[in-house]
Amino acid sequence: MANHYKFECLNVSVSPEGVAHVEISRPQALNAFNTKTWTEIGQCFTQFKTDGDVRSVVLSAAGRMFTAGLDLKEAMTGALGKPHDADADVARKGYYHRLFILDFQSAISAVESCDKPVVAVVQGGCLGIGIDLISACDVRIATEDAYFMVKEVDIGMAADVGTLQRLPKIVGNDSWVREVCYTARKIQPQEAHSVGLVSSVYATTADAMRAAFDMARTIAAKSPVAVVSTKHLLNYSRDHSVREGLEYTAIWNSLAHNSHDMAAAIMASLKKQPAQFPKL
């Protein structure tokens, strides 16, 4: 299968089974996020949304750390460090800075909205924007040397690209979320597991990667219509009432039930054989 994904800060491949692997690749900078990194994340996952060859995704990072967070050197000279126009008034500076933040948010949200399930593998540190990113993923697994920090208060700001919105819905413990967001303290992997931030912890990166790809291949073998529908409806229902979620699901499935996948899945189940599904 040809790989049409060429990026500067990401290594991207897609297997014949439909499992995409996205590896953040700035190990010399501890995978700190510069503008190019988050822009490419947005571009990559936006492309996945309409790529029928991609059925599931594993997200990992090269080197000894998932990410050190925001690239502070670039931040001091880029949009965070200087105004759009030094001579403009506060309203005009704020107008353009808001657009910059919205672009940043949109890039990270592309992981959530791409409809293909994303399994994140965290090794070493996962700081700041790393929490924003993995919070937008479907499944998070970690290694025993992983640790997590909502780091933004330590650089004088509130997290603004997803952590404060998604983390409370992932963990379900408001007191714990506020504690770690106010203090920026280190969260060890077993604590992350106990509160539900990650679903499992593995001894080594190799073990975690193996588990992630096994999971992703299992997902990729399912009906792509069923899988993207499930992710889409889970995201919708998380942000709406039960009644609204049920009504929307009825509308969505009135279309999705018209695929050939249901008949193929039922027949394969009766014959006790694996089903084969066309790409989305």
From TrEMBL:
It is found in: Peroxisome. Its main location: other. GO terms for cellular component: mitochondrion; peroxisome. This is Uncharacterized protein. The lineage of its organism: Eukaryota, Fungi, Fungi incertae sedis, Zoopagomycota, Kickxellomycotina. One of its GO terms (molecular function) is delta(3,5)-delta(2,4)-dienoyl-CoA isomerase activity. It comes from Coemansia thaxteri. Pathway: Lipid metabolism; fatty acid beta-oxidation. InterPro entries: ClpP/crotonase-like_dom_sf, Ech1-like, Enoyl-CoA_hydra/iso, Enoyl-CoA_hydra_C. SUPFAM superfamilies: ClpP/crotonase. Pfam families: ECH_1. Belongs to the enoyl-CoA hydratase/isomerase family. Keywords: Acetylation, Fatty acid metabolism, Isomerase, Lipid metabolism, Peroxisome. One of its GO terms (biological process) is fatty acid metabolic process.
